[in-house]
Protein 1
Amino acid sequence: EAQVTQNPRYLITVTGKKLTVTCSQNMNHEYMSWYRQDPGLGLRQIYYSMNVEVTDKGDVPEGYKVSRKEKRNFPLILESPSPNQTSLYFCASSLLSGQEYYEQYFGPGTRLTVT
Amino acid sequence: RKEVEQDPGPFNVPEGATVAFNCTYSNSASQSFFWYRQDCRKEPKLLMSVYSSGNEDGRFTAQLNRASQYISLLIRDSKLSDSATYLCVVIDFGNEKLTFGTGTRLTIIP
């Protein structure tokens, strides 16, 4: 089954404790990205990747890191989480051909609470 | 001005009615447009792409107005199952930027 998986689905942590949210897709997609969704602010892009070893900042990259060592995986790293990073996080992937963007497939979301 | 704006609603519409909402964008260089649907606490899923000539998929019609810089979504004969939040997405190839609107919440009332 074609899908994007994220783990964990729910995470409660404390300020400053490093964490990683994993994202994996099995559709051989070039493009992967991370979003956070907050009430009234909608989905905001954190980082995106056009292909392996190619990553770039989205609209709200501060406090986050990513890596793309393999095509299927795109982990999101919070080196020192803070309460303002409490949010619902989505990973997404899509085909990318030239300048043609295709349907974004989203993972089920990770609800993160930082106390 | 926000890059992509949607009326957040909520829109409460009786079953069977026709409902339409718009999404305005500020960057005239934007080149691709989509509508996504998001159910409560779930991931967004593609509803339909928006083509320059307008396009229809069953009860759903999407339109693009480049002159006025907005896209629209029309839902005819609305069903209870159409209750969701509808997100517009605007893509600017020039700076590889993909921007979501904040969403319009729709509730269909029996």
Protein 2
Amino acid sequence: DVKVTQSSRYLVKRTGEKVFLECVQDMDHENMFWYRQDPGLGLRLIYFSYDVKMKEKGDIPEGYSVSREKKERFSLILESASTNQTSMYLCASSPPGGAQYFGPGTRLTVT
Amino acid sequence: DAKTTQPPSMDCAEGRAANLPCNHSTISGNEYVYWYRQIHSQGPQYIIHGLKNNETNEMASLIITEDRKSSTLILPHATLRDTAVYYCIAGPWGSNYQLIWGAGTKLIIKP
């Protein structure tokens, strides 16, 4: 079974903190994605990566950055967390022409 | 990418077939129909996809109309564990970064 794991299920941070969300997949997938999910807004793509050290902006990249130093790991970074970044963050991976496999999500609260 | 329209919620009795409709009247020739579901507090899970032929796998069947303007996901023998939000998405295969996730259909399976 494909497994996508995320470093935390729940996280509480203060405004202005630097936040790291980690995602690891074990299926050697080329593509990895970070989404956020908010009530009534569906899933929105923040960043995606189609190869090591490669990254592309999604629909809402402002306030976020990403890092992919190894194929299996894709990190989402909030440089200076703000309350409007309180959300559910979902990581996914996929082969080049395949379906996405999602992690369990990290519910981040910024106070 | 084509926009999809789904009913916000549906009920189904346990053991019966659950039929979830999706309208995608603006779908273009190279766009597939994907279905994912999201059980409460989990990440989305891929179910099935199709282009123009009907498809079946161990989880569900996908029926696409001949004009491709609508489709139906069928869960043949719904169980309580099938209670989830079901997302119908249209987009080119292999272009996961372009998929637009709507609000989906909240399917409640009743005992």
